[in-house]
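Might you be able to review the protein record set out just below?
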Amino acid sequence: MRIQVVGVVGAGVMGIGLAQNLAQNGHQVILVDISEEILERANAQIKKNIRFQGFFNKNEKVENSENCLHKIKFSTNYKFLEKAEFVIENATEKWDIKKGIYAQLDAICPKKTIFAANTSAISITRIASVTKCADKVIGMHFMNPVPMKPIVEMIRGYHTSDETISTAQELLSQMGKEGILVNDSPGFVSNRVLMLTINEAIFLLQDKVASVEEVDRIFKTCFGHKMGPLETADLIGLDTILFSIEVLYESFNDSKYRPCPMLKKMVDAGLHGRKTGQGFYAYSEAI
C-alpha cells in the first residue's frame, strides 16, 4: 500500500532534502520546525534546489518548484502531524531535544504511525524507549544531499517489528531508494567509521602533519574517494560532526572517540561548513 502523507520534523539541510525528495515522488509532506523564519528559508531553499536540479539534469524530467511546493505544508504546529502515516525526525543530535520531540509525536500521532529517526549516532532503542510504540520506531540514516543519494542506512532497534521494517523499505522504494538494514549500536556502521576518520583528519591538521588540501587529495587520489574527509565534514556540518562524536564518546567511554580540540574551536567560532559558508573551505554562500 502506498504511503500518502509523510511528516518531516526539522527543516535543516536534511529535512529540506527529505521534503523535496518526498514531494517530487508524489507524497504529501508536512514539514515542521520551531519558527516561521526557518520554514521560510526552507521554502526558498527547496525552490533553489529544484532549479539547480533541473539545470544539471536537463535530460531528466524534474518537477517544477510550484508543483513540488504545493505538496508541502510548512508549519510550526505539531498537531498537523496527526494526519501523517509516517514521520521522519531530523532534529539536532542532542538527546534532550529528541526526547522532547518524540514525547510530542507519541501524544499526537495515531497508533499506526511509524516514527523514523534520521540520526547520525543516537541509539534507536533509546529513542523508542520514550514512546508507547517501540515496535514502530526505526532508524533511517539518510545521506546528504538526500535527493541524490540512492542508499539509506536502516537501523533495527531492539523492539522494531518486521512490519515496520517492511513499511520503511516500501517508503524508500517509493522515493527511489534502497535501504541497507543493520542492527542498533551508537553510530551504526557509517558514522562509527566516518566520524573517527574525520576526527583523526582534524587531528592531522592540528598537529600540522598536512594541510586541508593535502589530506583530502590523498584520500581522493589514493583511494578513489569522490570527496576527502574534510570536504565531507564541511558538507555534513562541523556542528553535526561534533555532536555525533560526542555521542560516540559518551556511549562507548572509549578515548578513541575523544573530539579533537580544533573541531570544538571551529564549532564555537561558527565555522560549521557549507551551511555557514565557512568550514575547512570557504564557500560563496551559506546553505
